[in-house]
Amino acid sequence: MKSSVSQPGKSARVPRSATVRCAAVLASVVLCSAHVARAQATDTQSTTALEPELANEVTQYQRVALAAARALAADADAAVFGMAYRGSVRAQLGAFLPVIGDEATDGFNFGLAPLVELHEPLHSLQPLPSEYWRARLPVEASWGFGAAAARYRVGLALEHESDHESSHAYSKAGFLTLNDAALVLRTGLRLGALQLFTAARLRGYVVSCTRTRSTCENFRGDASAGAQLDLVLLGPSLGRTRLSPFAAVTGFGLLAHAGIGGETHLELHAGVTIPTRWLEVQSFALLYVGNDVGLLRALTVTQLGAAVRLPFAQRP
Q1: Which of 140, 136, 145, 143 is nearest to 112 (CA)?
Q2: Which is nearest to 133 in space by CA: 124, 125, 121?
């Protein structure tokens, strides 16, 4: 029987079967490498094809996240067009007006949020409000950042409000006023099919007075501090419609000091919203508990009501 061990000084001969097996292994490696390369190229092409779609989804979410906390908030000072009833009829005329930048994108944004609200005394049957009115002019500069599933905007706002009574035979002279600087943080988070939006404000008041009209009329006032928190939960569209349910709550507080009266109120909204090309139509029921607004801010009320709002161009 022949031995397979090679003799010293002579080269070993490789069996033909081993050579065939090695060639087969090398061919398999080459084919596998080619397959992996093709798979990687396909994945790259698929990712590249999806990038516009993902970018569009991110852009749409940014627009919702950074604007919905302002438009859907249960905030009595929201700058929107709308009509409401709680104790009496109220009409709101306002809008957020961007001057520099866009809340839908990252980076710097500067804008105004003017609001005029007309309202009646409690239990008035007047269908068109005109007895009292208040005007607000906030200006806000902010910076937006974040990822697709979480959006943030940090800013500084300067806010002015004055509360008045329309001129008539029994009207009283003077007005109330609030002037403040506020730190603002807006967030938007995805929670599965739901979206949670928040807005927090820390306010420092100066030259403000809400106790007597005569003091404010002479442009004197005092300093104080306050805070506000808005929470909005937006659900997915119902069926094949663009109708989305939402719930919102806003808490507000103002510390009493000298000519500034202490205030707290809580407002809750529950309803539906329908985004269109230029408007986001909202219809909701509301509950308001605490100090009223405007010239009636010294009164504490508990009111149920309903409202329709038309914020401009909040979603594409």
Answers
A1: 140
A2: 121
